[in-house]
Description:
Strand order of the largest sheet: 1-2-3-4-5-6-7-8
Number of domains: 1
Radius of gyration: 18 Å
CATH architecture: Alpha-Beta Barrel
Bound molecules: 3-hydroxypyruvic acid, magnesium ion
Structural class: alpha/beta
Amino acid sequence: MRRNKLKDLFAAGQPALGGWMGFSSPFAAEVMGHADMDVVVVDLQHGPIYLDAAVPMLQAISATPAVPMARVSVNQFFEINKLLDAGAYGLICPLVNSAADAQSFVSACCYPPQGTRSFGPSRGVLYGGPDYFEHANDTITKLAMIETTDGLKNLDKILAVKGLDGVFVGPSDLSLALGLPPTPDFRADPLRKTLARILKAARKHKKMIGIFCSTLEFAQEMKRQGWDFIVLANDAYLLRHVTTQWAAAVRKG
Ligand code: 3PY
Ligand code: MG
C-alpha cells in the first residue's frame, strides 16, 4: 500500500505542514497540493462541501505530492466510510468529547477485527494500491479534535484510545470553551497554558499532535514548540490575506 507521508514524518520526528480547503473546488485543492504542502485537508465541517464535492477534491489532491485528508462534518459511520472509500488517507473528527467518541470514530475507520468499517474501498484501492485491505487500518491517519470543555477534561482517556493516531486542536472552539473570543491569540492565557498542557499529554502518550493555525506567527510558534502537524490557515484566508497585502503594497507605490 502507498505510504502515508504524514505518518512517516511523525515517525521521523519531523513536522508536517497542511493546507486546509474550504473552497468547494478540485482545482483549488490541486493548487494547494502543489504549494509545498505535506497534507491537504478537505473540510466538510465548516467548508460548504458535501460528499459529492469532496470526491473530486480528493482526486485532485491525489495528483499532487500531498496526502489527501478530510475533516468529517460529524462523527458518523456513514460519512467516515464514504470518505475513506473515496480515497481519504486520513480523517480528522471534530468535537470529540470522550473516549467513547474517539473509540466510535476509530472503529468506523478500521476494518474488523479492530473496527466496524464495511468493505468497499472503490477509490481507496486505486490510490492506496491492491493490498489496501491488508494495511488500511494502520496506514490511515485518525485524529480526534480537542476543542471542547469535555474533550479537555477527557484528554488523557481520548489519547489512550487504541488505534487513534493523535489529537488535533481547534483553537477557535477551544478558545470558546475557555471563555475567550473565537479569534485565537496563542499568546493569551488561558489558551497558551492549555495548548502546553495538550502538547505535554500527547508527548506522554507518544501520539501525534496537530493544530489549525490562523496566522503565520501562530504557525511559526507551534513549529518552534515541536508540534507535529501544523495547518497553515485555510484557502480563503490565504487568498484574501495575501491579496490584501499585495494591494496595500501596490497602492502605497
Ligand atoms: C477550530 O479552531 O475550532 C477549528 O475547528 C479549526 O478549523
Ligand atoms: Mg472547531
